[in-house]
Amino acid sequence: PLQAQVQVDASDDLQHWRAVSRDVPLVDLQRAGKRLLQRRLQVDGNARYLRVLPQGEARLPTLRSVLAELPPAPATVPWEWLSLQPTAAGKGEYTFELDGRFPVSKADVASTDNSLVQWTLYSRDDANAEWQRRSAPWIAYQVQQGAPGQRQQSAAQSLAGPWRDRYWKLVASPVETATAPTLRLGYQPEVMVFLSQGAAPYALAVGSATARRAEAPIAVLIEELRQRNDPAWQPTLARLEGAPETLAGAAALEPQRDWKAWLLWALLGLGVLVVGGLAVSLLRQKPAPSA
After folding, report:
1. pTM for this structure?
2. What count of Cα atoms within 13 Å lies in the side-chain half-sphere of residue 10?
């Protein structure tokens, strides 16, 4: 029989130890043909060495073997790539336009011939806004080797984003070596997670000029549930049924104007003019002669 409490320590050099788990019960008891068994030790974090120490007067049996269980690798969302052709070209500058606000996190440059160019990437969400630099200058190359179709090319650049801008620009240095490139923007499709409340079915509406995404601590909830259940636990998958239905249509993409606010500002400005006019008229009046 075994019934003890242990402490698990971790170290990277066998000299400096830190406790990662305390008062962990180890139980192996049998009675009336039934067995109560608890021999698992959960270790949080990374360490090169681990040691198990009994607490109190407990004594541990001889350790014969250890079976380590690694947590499953988190599921990764595959990358999607958009290939864009220049919509405008200048001297060493090429502009591109996306047809949506994708969460772009990677960028790559491709060409139809051998190339070696230093590029800098810029973007903006409005055609009249200032360009914002999204990458440091990097060398992009593409070299034909061996048989036709065998090419060596530079790796895609990771951005500090994600950026959801509509307009993008590549600037070459030096400008003489640049030919019209193809801009490839990479993104991972986002996953929508919602907490269902009320009776199903639910409706999903997308496309609005006024709606703004609200940050909710859903990630905290999912992480807590994974700790309680299993590292590989996933929320229940929802699916769309039926054909999509147009609601507001193109009108939902038009920004709404707050006419009440404009009216209040107009009334406030009119009141200021009236008060100013009364003050000027009073100042122009001649004072009555004193008796």
Report:
1. 0.56
2. 12
